[in-house]
């Protein structure tokens, strides 16, 4: 990997960088056309034209792009900032009525088809119980991926400390081809959701259980990842852990830490390796599949 590109591998997902759109490119043996974007250090990247051509981009344009993903092969993906819509804001959309679709998990879901300012059709997800009185609908942009908007009715989920939360009820345990052992949930408006079951075996979630859940991520496939409140670790709180081992790989130093219940977690120790046998104060940055995501504040 170019030394210039390491600035992206060390950056946080969601950071915004500036590029110049140099040209369009047809790759051999690929039916797609790509935009070639170049950063100030002359490192170049490809983004598929099809996803963004309705924005009217042309060679010479300055594009602000979000660092969207770095996959296991080290490939870096960027999402051009939408010229009109912003994540977390609400907008009025003209709608074409309600539809029932089969979602990613094969469940029936009510959606509302709308048209954005670029003339693109979008879906407002989780539309059960929404009253369509006129030709417009107020919806919130909660996620943007590959030029598509992930829209939900405004106020469907609740913001607390900059995070989205919802209230859910466990309806049933069942098997899906996508997640194997799963929990079928309903939110407060009556929409169905699916959550992996085996990551939360210690949460005592069973049919009839009501819980407050964090909306931890949005999938471009049209569903949300839900994290129930952790039974031991609160978000943004600090806890003491014992450093049981450290290691170094191509991306930097890591450490394994143990809590007072004997559970071990892997963390990135950033600049310097931690001392084995020492105790360290760590912040709970997030939850992921029933485990705390820990970080050191250097």
How are the SSEs ordered, and which strands pair?
Elements: H1 6-9, E1 16-26, E2 33-38, E3 44-48, E4 62-70, E5 76-80, E6 90-102, E7 108-115, E8 121-124, E9 136-145, E10 148-153, E11 158-160, E12 163-176, E13 180-187, E14 192-196, E15 210-218, E16 224-228, E17 238-249, E18 252-258, E19 264-270, E20 279-288, E21 291-295
Antiparallel strand pairs: 1-2, 1-4, 2-3, 4-5, 6-7, 6-9, 7-8, 9-10, 11-12, 12-13, 12-15, 13-14, 15-16, 17-18, 17-20, 18-19, 20-21
Number of helices: 1
CATH-level-4 superfamily name of the largest domain: RNA polymerase II/Efflux pump adaptor protein, barrel-sandwich hybrid domain
**What is the chain-wise order of helices and strands?**
HEEEEEEEEEEEEEEEEEEEEE
**Mind summarizing the main beta sheet?**
6 strands, antiparallel
CATH topology of the largest domain: OB fold (Dihydrolipoamide Acetyltransferase, E2P)
Q: What is the CATH C level class of the largest domain, in words?
A: Mainly Beta
Q: How far from one another are the termini? A: 27 Å
Low-confidence segments, given as residue ranges, are none
- Integer count of domains: 4
- How many beta strands in the DSSP annotation? 21
DSSP helix fraction:
under 10%
- Please state the second-level CATH architecture of the largest domain: Beta Barrel
Based on CA atoms alone, the radius of gyration comes out at 22 Å
Strand content: over 45%
What does this molecule look like?
- The protein is mainly β and 298 residues long.
- The chain has 4 domains: 3-80, OB fold (Dihydrolipoamide Acetyltransferase, E2P) (Beta Barrel); 90-153; 158-228, OB fold (Dihydrolipoamide Acetyltransferase, E2P); 238-295, Beta Barrel (OB fold (Dihydrolipoamide Acetyltransferase, E2P)), CATH 2.40.50.
- It has 1 helix and 21 strands.
- The chain has one helix at residues 6-9; strands at residues 16-26, 33-38, 44-48, 62-70, 76-80, 90-102, 108-115, 121-124, 136-145, 148-153, 158-160, 163-176, 180-187, 192-196, 210-218, 224-228, 238-249, 252-258, 264-270, 279-288, 291-295.
- Strands 11, 12, 13, 14, 15 and 16 form a 6-stranded antiparallel β-sheet that branches.
């Amino acid at each position: 990997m170019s030394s210039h590109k390491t600035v992206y591998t060390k950056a946080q997902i969601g950071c915004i960088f500036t590029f110049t759109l140099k040209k369009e490119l047809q790759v051999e043996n690929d039916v797609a056309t790509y935009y070639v974007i170049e950063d100030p250090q002359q490192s170049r990247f490809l983004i598929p034209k099809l996803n963004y051509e309705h924005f009217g981009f042309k060679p010479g344009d300055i594009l602000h792009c979000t660092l969207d993903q770095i996959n296991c092969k080290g490939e870096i993906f960027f999402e051009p900032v939408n010229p009109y819509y912003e994540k977390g804001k609400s907008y009025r959309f003209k709608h074409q009525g309600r539809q029932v679709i089969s979602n990613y998990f094969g469940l029936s879901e009510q959606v509302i088809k709308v048209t954005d300012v670029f003339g693109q059709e979008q879906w407002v997800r989780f539309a059960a119980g929404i009253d369509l009185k006129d030709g417009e609908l107020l919806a919130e942009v909660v996620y943007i991926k590959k030029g598509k908007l992930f829209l939900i009715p405004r106020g469907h989920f609740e913001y607390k400390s900059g995070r989205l939360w919802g209230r859910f009820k466990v309806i049933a345990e069942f098997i899906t081809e996508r997640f194997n052992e799963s929990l079928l949930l309903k939110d407060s408006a009556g929409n169905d959701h699916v959550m992996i079951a085996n990551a939360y075996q210690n949460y005592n979630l069973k049919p009839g259980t009501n819980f407050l859940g964090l909306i931890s991520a949005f999938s471009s496939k049209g569903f949300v990842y839900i994290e129930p409140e952790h039974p031991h670790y609160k978000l943004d709180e600090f806890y003491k852990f014992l450093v049981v081992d450290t290691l170094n790989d191509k991306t930097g130093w890591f450490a394994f830490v143990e809590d007072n219940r004997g559970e071990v977690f892997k963390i990135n120790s950033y600049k310097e390796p931690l001392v084995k046998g020492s105790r360290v104060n760590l912040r709970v940055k997030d939850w992921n599949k029933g485990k705390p995501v820990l970080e050191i504040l250097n």
